[in-house]
Amino acid sequence: MTRASGRRLRAAAAFGAATILVATGCSVSVKSGTSNVGPTTLLVGGADSGTPALFKNFNPFSPNKRNLTTWMYEPLEVVNNLNSAETPFLATGYTQPNAETVDFTIRQGVKWSDGKPFTPADVAFTFDLLRAHPALDVNGDWQHIRSLSVSGDHVVFHLKSADVPAAKVIEQTLIVPEHTWRDVKDPVTYTNPDPVVTGPYTLDHFTPNQYTLAKNEKYWQADKVAVQKIVVPGSSSDLAIATQGYDWAYSFFPNVDNTWVKADKQHNSYWFPPGGIVGLLPNLTKAPFDNLDFREGLSLGLDRQQIADKAEQGYVKAASQTGLLLPNEKSSLNPSIPDQGMVSQNTTAAYAHFAKAGYTRKGGKLVDRAGKPLTVTLTTPDGWADWLQGAQEIIEQLRGLGITVKLDKPQPASYQQDLQNGDFDLALGTVGGSGSLFQDYNNLLNSDFKKPVGKSTASNYQRYGDPATDALLDKLKTTSDPTEQRQLTDQLQNVVYQQLPVLSLFYGGLWGLSSDKKFTGWPSQKNPYASLMTWGSTPLLVMTHLRLAK
Question: Which residues are paired to 53 by β-bridges?
Fold first, then answer.
């Protein structure tokens, strides 16, 4: 998997791929094996890329913003996508007096980088800005919010309906200063070239080849920030990352022990926790995929770990059929589901289910009741090498069962359109990993997303629909009782395990590389306070944890 492909695991499920660029034209001269950019400067790779040059855009709501915009602007709280833990930032916390109200207490004593005070009015202004310009509402806040009000240091959000999970959507919105944005004529196209921020870093220097961030000395928790400067090349090849003294990178390295680690065995390490589930999406509007027994046959006929090993070179594990990311969400497992939801290959049982669905093996082929051999199409985006390798393994295993499989490899943009429109038989896709169990199950199962084939939908591409499941989701959306929440998520796990709206295959890794030569305190399996993602608000957690190496 390329480092860009990790972005497939974002909560918005915005599928995409990017080319790994060669590190040329950078103004920082780095020596092989060691960084000479300064003992308090962080050199980061795989965090941003030009196409081919960097375009200066630091609008936090723009889809074309520079990725490190989110290292400068802050949300009310940061959600750890590994375990859903919430860390207060511009809010000190929130309460939900009822299921239709979220009350955030706004942090006092924070200053914008130009010295002006940050206030609750900035929070209200930001959300009003998103309401006035829906194209900026990238998190869909106003799908949940009816209105908001300010009282002292509180900003209270009044929701459209009972909607307990809305708090996790609202809290992740980046806040902008009213005094610099209120006179912007077109906030949608505004590139915000001189960002005024509350976060740990400000824009220092920008060229089409690289940009740098400098520590914000006015930052409200400046004592927690050890990195004084961040260097972001507009292109960084894997070879450059391994040999030119990078401190942090997001990149999948084939044979990482003999590349990244070998480059500096004393200091270089990696951590690839699961960030989402890569699975087979069956088009439930088509026969035979609309038949549960047929889906059971497919599920039991696959060797998931072998597919994972083929696709990701042994760095990830086969995925649980519960829809949970393990071990991240192990505490949420339904104990009544056997083997933590892991499904082992059992071809005898697979053929028994195929027979119930009307398919039997004849002459080495799986045929229907009329004797016609079964042919299906598997869709996966062209250019995603790891998924293509996994797809080839899936094809071989299904051929072993007697199913003829055609591979469809559209370009990523066409692939995404095919999923949204329901124009596929079986497709490789990503589910889960949003940091919210409700959001994960809602995106996968809610029949509100069940659009007719040919009409675009934002989630539930396989078009699953069941009134009983919708009722579970509705209850989970409205209850704040932890016991009832647990009971409902247990039942939703059973739906995914038993009804197979997706056939979970393997976990998509978050390909984090780090060096403790200059900085310590990196996230790791032993200290999973965050992942090593270089996008979104996760880096705010990392940059307030790092310390200078002794």
Answer: none
Which residue, 229, 321, 329, is CA-closest to 274? 329
Torsion of CA 360, 363, 367, 373, to 10 degrees: 160
Angle subtended by helix axes 467-478 and 482-499, to nearest 10: 150
Report the alpha-carbon distance of residue 473 to residue 454 in Å, rounded. Answer: 26
Consecutive H or E run containing 77: strand 77-79
Question: Do residues 284 and 290 lie in contact, with contact meaning Cβ atoms separated by under 8 Å?
Answer: yes
- Please, are residues 432 and 440 in contact by the beta-carbon 8 Å criterion? yes
Cα angle 259, 264, 268 (rounded to 5 degrees) comes to 80
pLDDT digits (tens, 9 = 90+) for 192-240: 999 999 999 999 999 999 999 999 999 999 999 999 999 999 988 888 9
Q: Return the closest-CA partner of residue 246 out of 50, 31, 53, 52.
A: 31
Residue ranges in 402-455 assigned as alpha helix (H): 412-421, 437-445
Distances (CA, A) of 143 to 75, 139, 163, 170: 18, 9, 11, 10
Q: What is the chain's alpha carbon radius of gyration, rounded to the nearest angstrom? A: 24
What helix, strand, coil percent values describe the chain, rounded to 5?
30, 20, 50
CA 509/CA 434 separation, integer angstroms:
14
Helix (H) or strand (E) holding 97: strand 91-98
Beta bridge partners of 41: 229
Residues facing residue 367 across a β-bridge: 360, 373
What is the average pLDDT value for the chain, to the nearest integer?
91
Tokens of 68: 């490190």
Look at phi and psi of residue 484 and say left if phi exceeds 0, alpha if psi is from -120 to 50, else beta.
alpha
The predicted-structure confidence for 276-307, as pLDDT tens digits, reads as follows: 999 999 999 999 999 999 999 999 999 999 99
Dihedral angle computed from the Cα positions of residues 215, 217, 218 and 220, in that order, rounded to the nearest 10 degrees: 70
Lowest mean pLDDT among 48-57, 70-79, 363-372: 48-57
Strand runs labelled E in 265-422: 268-271, 274-282, 360-362, 365-367, 375-379, 404-408
41-45 and 248-250 strand pairing: parallel
In the block, which residue shows the tokens 């393990």? 326
Candidates 144, 110, 244, 189; CA nearest to 477 is 144
The encoded tokens of residue 438 equal 């409700």
Q: Which two tokens stand for residue 388?
A: 């293509």
Tokens of 256: 């990482």
CA 174 to chain centre: 17
- Listing DSSP states for 100-117 in one string gives TEEEEEEPSS-B-TTSPB
- The C-alpha atoms of residue 24 and residue 84 are separated, in whole angstroms, by 38
